Amino acid sequence: MPFKKLHPEILETLEQQNIETPTAFQKKSIPVIKSGANVYCIAPKGSGKTTTLIVTTLQKLKCEAVGNAPRAIVLVEHKERAMEMYDAFLKFTKYNSLRVYVGYEELHVDVQKSEIFEGIDILITTPKSMNKLFLLNGVNTAKLKIFSIDDAEFLIQKSAYAALMSITQSVQKSQYVLYAEKMHPKLMRFESYFMEYAKTISV
Question: Name one GO molecular function term (predicted).
């Protein structure tokens, strides 16, 4: 059964990449994420989590650039994963106007600030880097629509957990989608903070 009810541009790119049929995880998760709920997406490697994250982000932003402030944030563990995620996004955004930006600790925060200020739609970053930007008023989250966390197991580490808690306290309103291979008690705790009324999809 092919992908349904997605933006025509997304369907076209999926076709170009020979992704014609959703995985069991994608069938269950994409409609729930599209509904706007906060979601815990729990599935093993190879279930299509990265593609789901990209597709639902693009769907939420209607595949077009708007304004200057980021409307989607993708949080990843480290620079290597940030670059991988950036490359994966570019396969889907090269034919539309969406502006994807990648930030990480090794890139000076002032450089990130000025580049973000020029206007972006999707920010891929690490917790430490994002937290630094917040402390320096380097990113405006007023227009944020969706906040996705990739391979969220890294949040079990104390510093990443603290950075995320600090970030989410500064975000007034957004949908949160957290992806992981296994549900960890520490990830469940987020329900008391920013993952309110979250739904859990697991395969």
Answer: nucleic acid binding
